[in-house]
Amino acid sequence: MTGMIAATRRDRRTAWSGGWCNRGQAMADGAALGVVATLSVLVPLLLPEGEPRANALAGTLGFVLVAAALLAVRPARPGGQQAVAAGAVVTVTAGVLAFPGLLATSNDLTNLWMPLASVWPTYGACRYRQDRRRAWLMIGLLTAVVTRPWVASVPVVATGLLYLTVPMLFGFYLCARRAVVASLTERARRAEREQELLAEQARADERVRIAAELHDIVTHRLTLMVLHAGALAVSAPDADTRATAEEVRATGAKALDELRDLIGVLRRPTGSAGWMVPR
Fold first, then answer.
1. pTM
2. Using one digit for the tens of pLDDT, what is the confidence trace for 50-83?
3. Alpha helices of the chain — where are they, by DSSP H?
4. CA nearest 121: which of 43, 77, 176?
């Protein structure tokens, strides 16, 4: 009864954690879609038309800064990377809106999307690792929003594909490559362990073979020597001869016991109690 209650509680915790994980993924996907929709649709409405006064070096500098901030955060701490990504989105958007026409215009959002290009590989890798189907669904939705097909503008489509779709695909590649490397590493370790086990088994087999040869050859001859000495101790006419034969028989019997112990050690597997040669 207690086991059933514990199993039920464990199942509930698993279901709750799984549901919370799914809700967290949905929130992250919703946030990404909201950010892309805001930057692609709403921000251009607040910017003037024409060409930005700043060239693409401003976007390149932003890309380097954001990428350095993401690399500075440990990959094992996704919360830190999410904070850096959110801060980058807010900072870049605020900078573009604070100086309309300087960094970006409604016709050219390169300096807006280029600094954020380093965010999408991390998001894409995380989503691909959790759910591949969902990852491909999200890249399709985000690409449809960022390219704004209803505008029918080649620069807009090129900017969206270059600074969002391609980085996400690169994140997919990194995640898949990491999984393949981990799988190959595990296979190599497993093969190494199997080789070690085979080598240990070969050594054990050799020890058993040597022990069998010692038992068959040396023990047989020592047994004959002990038997002959015992017979001589019984049939010898004088006491000195009987005493000497008895001493030889006792010494041979002791040598047999020691030899059996030695053979047992040879036959014993490494790290195991093993088994001894029967007397």
1. 0.62
2. 888 888 888 889 888 888 888 888 665 657 778 8
3. 2-37, 43-45, 57-72, 78-98, 110-113, 119-130, 132-147, 154-160, 166-235, 239-267
4. 176
